[in-house]
């Protein structure tokens, strides 16, 4: 009884202590919590995009002209920028998904959850820089009167 | 008591006899489908957005050319089903986490399941009944 009470007091004290809380078993405020938040947000965004994307692709059954008209909007600068955002969201979700699986199935996964998070963020940056460049290249050229 | 303590954290909400392994299978499905989707979706995004001029080369003729091949039909069909169920299951979890009232939870899930059936039906129908001949009209 007294053990439980003192453990609870200790937990509450370390909760108030701020920085020391991070060294304990608390998940709240850990980068792992933010990756979980980001995983949910990117997942929901992708789900809603998929809804729209299946319906716009379904226009191939209406007529070639209807489909072509709608797909042209994907080539406008703003939508093209949104596509870069989508690719960024999906790429984070995929990389973090691999990290989640390693935490679940690899015996050392939980121990390395934080370095694995920094690793996937580094991979994300390294892939997204050329990715965004090649996705936007033609759009930017067209914007400034190129071919 | 501390605010951190959970009241009866392991108390089952339903009688043990009625519990199923559904959540275990859904957890496992998320990981297996996720693994397949890494290849299917990242491949799709790379081909559509980056390869050979990216999105600027896509039009009706491009889609018709792709779906002339059973390989891409199979790719897109598996991607559609796995992504829709993976995403739908993720959204189901989110609704369970955040809906406060049982009625809200119920109706949000009805909307979710209807949208999933709609997308799977429309998407599957389009891939299977696509007719490259309509360009002639």
What's a quick, concise take on this entry?
By secondary structure, chain A is mainly α. Chain A has helices spanning 2-16, 31-58, 64-73, 77-105, 113-143. Chain B has one domain (28-129): Fumarate reductase/succinate dehydrogenase, transmembrane subunit (3 helical TM bundles of succinate and fumarate reductases, Up-down Bundle), CATH 1.20.1300.10.
Succession of helices and strands of chain B: HHHH
Structural class of chain A: mainly alpha
Domain count of chain B, please report it: 1
The first-level CATH class name of chain B: Mainly Alpha
Amount of beta strand of chain B = under 5%
Say which CATH homologous superfamily of chain B is assigned. Fumarate reductase/succinate dehydrogenase, transmembrane subunit
Separation of termini of chain A? 78 Å
GO molecular function (chain A): electron transfer activity; metal ion binding
GO cellular component, one term (chain A): membrane
Subcellular location (chain A): Membrane
Keywords (chain A): Heme, Iron, Membrane, Metal-binding, Transmembrane, Transmembrane helix
Description:
Chain B: It comes from Amycolatopsis umgeniensis. Chain B: It is found in: Membrane. Chain B: This is Succinate dehydrogenase / fumarate reductase membrane anchor subunit. Chain B: GO terms for molecular function: metal ion binding. Chain B: The chain crosses the membrane at residues 28-51, 110-130. The complex is a heterodimer of chains A (147) and B (137). Chain A is mostly helical and 147 residues long. Chain A has one domain (29-140): 3 helical TM bundles of succinate and fumarate reductases (Up-down Bundle), CATH 1.20.1300.10. In chain A, 77% of the residues lie in helices and 0% in strands. Chain A contains 5 helices and no strands. Chain A starts with a helix and ends with a helix. Chain B is mainly alpha-helical and 137 residues long. Chain B has a single domain, classed as Fumarate reductase/succinate dehydrogenase, transmembrane subunit (3 helical TM bundles of succinate and fumarate reductases, Up-down Bundle), CATH 1.20.1300.10. In chain B, 68% of the residues lie in helices and 0% in strands. Chain B has 4 helices and no strands. Chain B has helices spanning 22-49, 60-67, 70-98, 102-129. In chain B, α1 packs across α3 and α3 packs antiparallel against α4. The longest helix of chain B is centred in the middle third of the chain and has 29 residues, at 70-98. Chain B is elongated, with a radius of gyration of 21 Å. Chain B starts with 21 loop residues before the first helix and ends in an 8-residue tail after the last helix.
């Amino acid at each position: 009884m007294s053990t439980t009470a003192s453990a609870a007091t200790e937990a509450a004290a370390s909760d108030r202590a701020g920085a020391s809380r991070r060294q304990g078993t608390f998940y709240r405020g850990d980068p792992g919590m933010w990756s979980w938040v980001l995983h949910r947000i990117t997942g929901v965004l992708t789900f809603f995009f998929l809804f729209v994307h299946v319906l716009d692709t379904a226009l191939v059954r209406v007529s070639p002209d209807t489909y072509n008209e709608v797909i042209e909007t994907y080539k406008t600068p703003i939508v093209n920028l949104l596509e870069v955002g989508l690719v960024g969201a999906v790429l984070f979700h995929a990389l973090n998904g691999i990290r989640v699986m390693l935490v679940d199935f690899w015996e050392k996964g939980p121990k390395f959850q934080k370095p694995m998070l920094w690793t996937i963020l580094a991979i994300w940056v390294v892939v997204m820089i050329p990715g965004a460049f090649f996705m936007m290249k033609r759009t930017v050229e067209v914007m400034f009167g190129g071919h | 008591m501390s605010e951190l303590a959970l009241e009866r954290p392991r108390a089952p909400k339903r009688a043990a006899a009625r519990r199923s392994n559904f959540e275990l299978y859904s957890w496992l499905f998320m990981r297996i489908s996720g693994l397949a989707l890494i290849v299917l979706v990242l491949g799709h995004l790379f081909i559509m957005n980056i390869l050979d001029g990216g999105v600027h080369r896509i039009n009706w003729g491009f889609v018709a050319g792709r779906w002339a091949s059973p390989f891409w039909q199979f790719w897109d069909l598996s991607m559609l089903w796995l992504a829709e169920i993976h995403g739908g299951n993720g959204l189901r979890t989110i609704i369970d986490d955040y809906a406060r009232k049982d009625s809200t939870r119920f109706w949000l899930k009805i909307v979710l399941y209807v949208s999933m059936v709609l997308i799977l039906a429309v998407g599957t129908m389009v891939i299977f009944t696509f007719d490259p001949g309509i360009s002639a009209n």
